[in-house]
Predict the 3D structure of the following.
Amino acid sequence: VQLQASGGGLVQAGGSLRLSCAASGGTFSMFQMGWFRRAPGKEREFVARIRWSGGSTYYADTVKGRFTISSDNAKNTVSLQMNNLKPEDTAVYYCAAQSVQGGTYEYWGQGTQVTVSS
């Protein structure tokens, strides 16, 4: 499975960006997909995840109410709509896929840079 993230860029505080992650490589059937981010000098942190079946979602407290994760199962894509962006959201964002419940995120995209200016 290959994951390709896109949609990053430079935006002013208060602005919006939409990230997309396209999955490819044979039959795709995942338990859930998620977005993570790594800010300069910090550890990678969880942002949001969505269950592939049923579509339930979960967010980090730092983005709750501002970010929305969604999926298009027919197209094997996951998106992250980011609104009211803050400078502290600046990071490289990664999409990831977890194939089985109770497992780990085995597949990772290459990352896309999001920079929020104040």
